What we know:
alpha/beta; D-Maltodextrin-Binding Protein, domain 2; six-stranded mixed β-sheet; five-stranded mixed β-sheet; 42% helix
Amino acid sequence: MNLTQLTVFREVMETGSISQTAKKLNRTQPAISLALKNLEKALGLALFERKGRRLVPVPEAHYLLAETAGILDRLSTISTTMEGLIKGHSGSLNIATMPGPSAFLFPRFISQSVGENPEIRITLSSRSSPQIMELAGTQNIDFGFADFEYSFGRKPQYSAELIRADCFCAIDCEHPLASQGSITISDLDKTPMGGLHATHPFQRKVHREFQDMSANYNPTVTCQYFLPLIPFVSSGQCCTIVDPLTVATERELNLSNGKVVFMPFDNPLRYEYAILEPDHRPPSQLALKIKAGWKAEVLKMLKELKANPCTEWYGQEGGEQN
């Protein structure tokens, strides 16, 4: 007994005809007759009485039909489910992103990508970048999006696709520097500055840039991530160097009511994002689809900002790509 035989049997039960079953299944009448004959042989039971051109089922055939319908319907459900999984139209996804993009840009992308598809389940967590690296390393997420920090010592259990892009300086529109086409680190000497916590890798990078230019870094406001700094900038309390996705978020949300301008640097200060992928957790088709879509969305936004993005793999062989 096999699925082909059961499929033929169910259609014959519904049509009562070999010829109609052959048309419906797009097969020849001899092939239908042979499948039915082999099924009866396997069961040791004649399932139909032949009356003219019609086949009349015996009582046992009705019991077999009930069992067959359950098997074939279940198989159809499995086939449909697998097709959805393969095409990325169904499944579950566990993603972690750093606070900035998780406030607006990433949820917007996910909602547009998934739409109203009830077959997709999304778990989206907002975590610090070290926490996201830990989740990726312990294989507890499908992928993550974070600030990147190089790992020293033991090899990390994840791969990272880096996206590098130019930073900007957020300045109150009435600030004297706002009239310039671009600025330098030296222009910010002794200027009240907002920034991230001193232990953040980007903040350490900013401090090095000021030291290299013999400029005095004057921190007056410290936040966990960039977006909360924008109100302080718009009120004229400080300037701040921000990542380009913060610029994209502000342009979308206009938190400052147009009171903040974003200035490029003469000598670009680069920011590094990372799309983190666990090494030992094979990605689903849905995860591959969403991850590729998010990468394309990020690169699109960065190009629109003229932030000069490029990508590079970390954790496996590969070179930088423009």
